[in-house]
Structure formats: C-alpha cells, structure tokens
Amino acid sequence: MGNRGCIHDGEDIVRPWNGRRWIICALEFKGWAAPKWEPGRWTALFFHDEAVALAAGHRPCALCRRAAYLRYRDAIGAVRADEIDRRLHRDRLDGRQKRVHARPWVELPSGVFVVVDGRPAVVTPDAVVTWTIEAGYLEQVRRPTRGDATVLTPATTVDAISAGYAVQFAP
C-alpha cells in the first residue's frame, strides 16, 4: 500500500502527491488499518507489488516495514528518511512528469522497471516481463544484452537494488 499524503477531496483524487514522503506501507500493522477516504487524512494507494510501488517512486515505510526500510536505507548509504525522500523526489519527477533515465541493460538488476515497446516491464535475470494495470505481469521476452534501457524506477532505487535490496514480487 502506498502513501503520498492527502491527495483526495471526498472520493476524488485531486492531486498526484502532497509532499516528498512517498512510502510503501504494510496492509496491516499491529492491528491498525489504514484510513480510507477520511477528510484531511492521507490517501491509501494500492500497488500490485513492491516492484511496482518502487518503480512509482515510493520507498519502504520506516514504521510498519522497518526491516525493509533499514535494508533500503543501508543499501544507498543514507542516514535519515528525509535524505532518502529528497533524493527520491529529485529522481522521480521532471517538473510534474515522471522522470525516466537511461542505463545499460547489462547493469540493470532484477526488479527494476523499464520501457519495452512503449509498455512498462520488469527486469528479471534472463528476461523482461511486460506489465499492465489490468492484468499484472504478462508476456516475457528475452532480456537485451546490449544498449541502454529507458528506466522507470528512480535512480536511487536502482542503486539500492543493485546494492542488494531484495524486491518483493507478486506471484
């Protein structure tokens, strides 16, 4: 589950984010359930899995996903959540649009999202698997071995995964 602050008015999404702290939370934590559509409260967003949430620019929550947060933080050598959030905010946005970047295919770790034939796809060790909102993961194609990929996952998160952060995937 993702959180970008209070981005709703009633049950209408009125802005894409409110602040730099975009986090990935557990669906349940110590019996607590997230507020849904409460006025002035943060808006719960739901993602297919952690790989999709990371590609969207979120990072693990320091409270309800503490162990994942510490692994992510340590993988990028950050000290505090605010530092991570500043880095991610720079990485994920180009003005108000999603920032993409290029990296050589051979340098991309498993779990990173890229663009393949105009569609999002997740990188695996030997393939890339296309993904849609409607159906999740779909067809698998051979992973390129040359050239650069257009990467959707923010650079800070690519660095975390490259340094050993293990990404959770839906089956």
Description:
Helix content is 22%, strand content 27%. The chain is built from four helices and 14 strands. The protein is globular. It has 171 residues and is α+β, with helices and mostly antiparallel strands. A hairpin with a 2-residue loop joins strand 10 and strand 11 (119-123). Helix 2 (66-76) crosses helix 4 (155-162). It has one domain (2-162). It has a six-stranded antiparallel β-sheet. It has a four-stranded mixed β-sheet with strand order 5-1-4-6.
Task: Summarize, please.
The chain has one domain (2-162). It is 22% helix and 27% strand.
Count of helices? 4
Major beta sheet, strand line-up: 9-14-10-11-12-13
| Fraction of helical residues | 10-25%
- Low-confidence stretches at least 5 residues in length (pLDDT < 50)? none
List keywords for this structure.
globular; 4-stranded mixed sheet; 171 residues; 14 strands; single chain
Blueprint of the fold:
Elements: E1 2-3, E2 8-9, E3 12-13, E4 23-24, E5 44-45, H1 50-55, E6 59-60, H2 66-76, H3 81-92, E7 93-94, E8 97-98, E9 101-104, E10 113-116, E11 119-123, E12 127-132, E13 136-142, E14 148-151, H4 155-162
